[in-house]
Design a protein that fits this description.
CATH class of the largest domain: Mainly Beta
Number of domains: 2
Shape: elongated
CATH topology of the largest domain: Immunoglobulin-like
Radius of gyration: 27 Å
Helix content: 10-25%
Number of helices: 4
CATH architecture of the largest domain: Sandwich
Length: 224
């Protein structure tokens, strides 16, 4: 038994309302279960971010050369970054994060992509920027489809461009890709992928373009 919060009458300890005065006996959290749940989730996110706040967020390394013994020489992000701490690589470099080894294998401009029956051309004044790349799961666990590495094109103002789905699909008919769409990428597996971006031919010719690679870490690849 417990006293009512309002009239102080003895009521059952499990009662939600007082049978005498009708006063709600529940606390704020019990009255607002949904808000309490959301608040708990937000609190967990804040704690998680705070716990990782002291960790280095730019631990990606870039392998872009060989030493005297012929082995690939890993160059730390500190040697390949701008003043803003961006990890910057070149075409052909191996970008290594905790989960991936990522390589942009080629970048080329095309006026048409696809095969004889399935092809695509850019709109008037546009051009296609075709990016071939590959990534490998170097962790010890499968990586889900929603955690795969992604590539975006950035102009000189850092405006982000997404790939053209139709043009990318057309390009897939003329080259051999093994993109993971809805399946996991298991440890040790390397996937060859490609993205096709439609951009202004005039703006692309002006230069200043680069790629943004986003995985568990971020890196950038200069184009022109």
């Amino acid at each position: 038994m417990k006293p009512c919060k309002e009239c102080k009458q003895e009521i059952s300890s499990s009662a939600k309302k007082c049978p005498s005065c009708g006063k709600d006996q529940r606390n704020w959290f019990m009255k607002h279960k949904i808000l309490s749940f959301i608040g708990a989730i937000v609190l967990l996110i804040i704690i998680s971010v705070a716990a990782n706040g002291g960790k280095d967020n730019n631990t990606a390394t870039v392998s872009n050369g060989t030493d005297k013994s012929g082995n690939t020489a890993a160059v730390s992000s500190g040697d390949n970054k701008k003043a803003s701490n961006e990890v910057v690589a070149k075409v052909g470099d191996v970008i290594k994060t905790e989960k991936f080894e990522i390589t942009i294998t080629s970048i080329e401009e095309k006026a048409e992509v696809g095969g004889e029956y399935i092809n695509s051309k850019p709109s008037e004044g546009g051009t296609y920027v075709v990016v071939n790349w590959q990534y490998k799961n170097i962790s010890d666990k499968p990586i889900g489809s929603f955690s795969m590495a992604t590539v975006n094109l950035l102009d000189k103002n850092s405006t982000k461009y997404d790939s053209d789905i139709g043009a990318t699909s057309s390009y897939a008919t003329e080259t051999k890709l093994d993109t993971k769409i809805l399946s996991d990428l298991n440890p040790g597996i390397t996937v060859k992928d490609a993205e096709v971006f439609e951009v202004s031919k005039e703006l692309y010719k002006a230069g200043g373009w680069r790629l943004k690679i986003k995985a568990d870490k971020e890196a950038f690849v200069n184009i022109n």
